[in-house]
Amino acid sequence: MVLAVFNISFRPKPFNRLQIILQHLKISKQTDSTAEVLLEKKGGAGIITLNRPKALNALNLSMIRQIYPQIKTWEKDPETFLIIIKGTGGKAFCAGGDIRAIIDAGKVGNKLAQDFFKEEYTLNNAIGTCKKPYVALIDGITMGGGVGLSVHGHFRVATEKTIFAMPETAIGLFPDVGGGYFLPRLSGKTGYYLALTGFRLKGRDVLKAGIATHFVESEKLPALEKDLIALKSSSTENIADLLNSYHMKVNLISYQKSSRIVEAVHSLTFSFSLFSGNSMEEIVKNLKQDGSAFAIKQLETINKMSPTSLKLTLRQLREGASMTLQEVLTMEYRLSQACMRHPDFYEGVRAVLIDRDQSPRWKPAALEEVSDEFVDNCFKPLGSNDLKL
């Protein structure tokens, strides 16, 4: 209780008393169990808890507008040594952004379609540039917006429940939230494979792919969080040592069972050439010529994706490979607004998330019909509307 810190003999003036009560109400609101995001300070740790379990902790604009200023405040606070972010409900860290709200806004030209992406990417940049150690406990589903809330931080702790994916090409979008920065930097062509096919990594494979920094059993996360809060000196090195100690104690059976990939990563290790094409048409040709079971499966998947999204994504990753995070996010904001003007995004969301018939009718329907001129236009600066970081 905030009021409890004051000496009983102290009699604040009416105005000061009102300020104290308002401050108390503000903090109570942030830690209210019904709030969409909980913001707490425990010891030297600032703790962000995504609290929309029924929506798999999907990120909306209201949550972004609470998280961003709090990270900035904790970053400047000498008594805050680290930041921890986690999700509630046991199923998801964060399954993505609140797509339905964006769809509804985009259909009527509402400003939300601009504001959401602009403010989300600004938050992603704040995480990527945060001066305080940032620990993301990615327990459960971690996709889209959830990736943006975790992957740019110092530490990402996966568990046997972690399911990681960037499935945006299936809904007429592209792997945003800085996907153009971290995906092409994964070993070989793993990032290209994940981006184009939306393949889901599970558990230890999130670590193997280089996305997670540590692997800890889900049931041990409360103890890990408690130990992180109890650290007397929360330097990056001390946090790494603590995470390493948990990582080294993982039950081998639990670790080995938490894998979905089996042959896929191994196939990819020896088949980097499959996803090394300079164009989507070349990648499709490589897969057809390879003819392996792995290649055929990837072809089947790619054929279901938005041809426009595939072409935008490939160029996004190729260009992002040599860009800073800020340059990537600026590029991705331009792409987000191009997608808001394109029918595939609305059709993809309809087919996958609303009607769920899984039968999107893409326009255009073939890769060859997506012109280089159209793709070029999607990457053009937006002038005064560009994202400024």
UniProtKB/TrEMBL annotation:
One of its GO terms (biological process) is L-valine catabolic process. Its main location: mitochondrion. Keywords: Branched-chain amino acid catabolism, Hydrolase, Mitochondrion. GO terms for cellular component: mitochondrion. Gene3D superfamilies: 2-enoyl-CoA Hydratase, Chain A, domain 1 (3.90.226.10). InterPro entries: ClpP/crotonase-like_dom_sf, ECH_dom, HIBYL-CoA-H. The lineage of its organism: Eukaryota, Metazoa, Chordata, Craniata, Vertebrata. Pathway: Amino-acid degradation; L-valine degradation. Pfam families: ECH_2. GO terms for molecular function: 3-hydroxyisobutyryl-CoA hydrolase activity. This is 3-hydroxyisobutyryl-CoA hydrolase. Its EC number is 3.1.2.4. Hydrolyzes 3-hydroxyisobutyryl-CoA (HIBYL-CoA), a saline catabolite. Has high activity toward isobutyryl-CoA. Could be an isobutyryl-CoA dehydrogenase that functions in valine catabolism. Also hydrolyzes 3-hydroxypropanoyl-CoA. The gene is LOC101874069. It catalyses: 3-hydroxy-2-methylpropanoyl-CoA + H2O = 3-hydroxy-2-methylpropanoate + CoA + H(+). Belongs to the enoyl-CoA hydratase/isomerase family. It is found in: Mitochondrion. It comes from Melopsittacus undulatus (Budgerigar).
